[in-house]
Amino acid sequence: MIRNLVRAGALGAATVLLFGSAAHAADIASLPHDLSPWGMFKNADIVVKVVMAGLALASLATWTVWLSKTVELRRETARARDGLAKLETDTTLAELGRSSEGAHDAVSQLIQTAAREGSLSGWTFDADFKERVALRLERVEAAMARKIAGGTGILATIGAVAPFVGLFGTVWGIMNAFIGISEAHTTNLAVVAPGIAEALLATALGLVAAVPAVVIYNYLVRAIAAYRALLGDASAQVLLLVSRDRGRSARQMRAG
Question: Has this prediction a pTM greater than 0.85?
Answer without folding.
Answer: no
